[in-house]
Amino acid sequence: MNPTGLDLPPLLAAFVFGLMGGAHCIGMCGGIMSALMFAVPPSMRQPARLGGLLLSYNVGRVMSYMLAGALVASLGTFLSFSPSAGMALQAFAAVMLILMALYIANWWKGLLKVEAVGRRFWRYIEPFGRRLMPVVKLPQAFALGAIWGWLPCGLVYSMLAWSLAIADPLRGALLMGAFGLGTLPALLATGLAARQLRDLIRHPATRAVAAFSIIAFALWQLFTLFASGATH
């Protein structure tokens, strides 16, 4: 199943959506990136070491996304027990994409209610991350990223709805991996203090263009979904 309803490969679409969500990623995880860098002792802040820690952290984070994608897609295999159930999951994924777009553009914050549910579980996970600070070794950075990958995030939850509709653990993991890679530029820009790129990503016009693009994808998905349903 192509979640976009288009000829655009799903993994490419997920990567692009990760890029588009960069402004939100800076807001959610930018502080973590900065704290990770500043917690390194001054005597150990060589560019190569900082870059390695930053990359290891993000690899751990993306791996967590992939694990979540596989788990949710596995659930989807049980929920898509009929063609009508599969269509319902695809429609749900499209609606979540629209909510994701509204969230990115700061037009509506309904996904905060979804994040609130995740925060109930996050309070049990977050202390393990704090025990890893300050991060000075690559395994520490990877472990911290793997933990913080479960941070409640409306964008991640929207993409997990996509994995749910795919109902294939391997493809669900790959989809979330592509999305995670798409978020890298924004977070690396924050961690490396690339101010110009960070400001461009957070600009309201950039967020608006990203939101309209995602909404267009989601509406086309709904159109093709119901059009194909009407022909059967």
From TrEMBL:
<feature type="domain" description="Urease accessory protein UreH-like transmembrane">
    <location>
        <begin position="13"/>
        <end position="219"/>
    </location>
</feature>
<protein>
    <submittedName>
        <fullName>Sulfite exporter TauE/SafE family protein</fullName>
    </submittedName>
</protein>
<dbReference type="Pfam" id="PF13386">
    <property type="entry name" value="DsbD_2"/>
</dbReference>
<feature type="transmembrane region" description="Helical">
    <location>
        <begin position="173"/>
        <end position="194"/>
    </location>
</feature>
<feature type="transmembrane region" description="Helical">
    <location>
        <begin position="62"/>
        <end position="81"/>
    </location>
</feature>
<feature type="transmembrane region" description="Helical">
    <location>
        <begin position="87"/>
        <end position="105"/>
    </location>
</feature>
<feature type="transmembrane region" description="Helical">
    <location>
        <begin position="206"/>
        <end position="227"/>
    </location>
</feature>
<keyword id="KW-1133">Transmembrane helix</keyword>
<keyword id="KW-0472">Membrane</keyword>
<keyword id="KW-0812">Transmembrane</keyword>
<dbReference type="InterPro" id="IPR039447">
    <property type="entry name" value="UreH-like_TM_dom"/>
</dbReference>
<feature type="transmembrane region" description="Helical">
    <location>
        <begin position="141"/>
        <end position="167"/>
    </location>
</feature>
<feature type="transmembrane region" description="Helical">
    <location>
        <begin position="12"/>
        <end position="41"/>
    </location>
</feature>
